[in-house]
Amino acid sequence: MANSAKTQPSIRILFGAAVALGPGKVDLLESIAETGSISAAARTMKMSYRRAWTLVDSMNKCFCSDLVSTATGGQGGGGAAVTDLGLEVLARYRAIEAKAARSVEAEIADFADLLVEPPR
Amino acid sequence: MANSAKTQPSIRILFGAAVALGPGKVDLLESIAETGSISAAARTMKMSYRRAWTLVDSMNKCFCSDLVSTATGGQGGGGAAVTDLGLEVLARYRAIEAKAARSVEAEIADFADLLVEPPR
After folding, report:
1. Is the ipTM of this complex over 0.95?
2. Which of A118, B14, B78, B109, by CA, is between 20 and 30 Å from A100?
């Protein structure tokens, strides 16, 4: 019996030691794109502004140009925008996730049969 | 220019909210299989014995039968063995990871061209 309801796999792609880009950073990038603000994205993701800013700074430095641009106004001040490169990175990362997930859909459905829900 | 050296993607598969099985638990399971002991595996993974034991207990309860069996002797006492089901789960999880990774090998190699190393 397949158990599609109990198992919703998510495939996550890390680069190197997750330095350049991993699931947390990509989710943050997506949230900044949606909210137009690092602080609003940080709130959505329940992380400190400082932590979000550090992740953005680290992402920016790992790519050939910035993924997020911050308006003048200082930390917490001027809002933030995901650049064209940032949007491209986001779209490509999500596409890779989706393709990888599709490739193992059948295996994961079979695997789910080993699980019990609720736990014993 | 491809940058295969700078990007070594790892694909990780989470089930649901990573409750049943995720990368941390699978690595722990693998380490128990290698060391024959929860406490040795915990040391290898730089986590407390208590944390490792909790993860094992949670894994066991999420599957139709135990993935790790512990010998009598109490916590830290009698050693631990990965069961046949545990070995099957481990092998299938790694196979799924590998197949998913292969499916997006080309996309990830292209993606790597957007990265700079060392970071700017």
Report:
1. no
2. A118
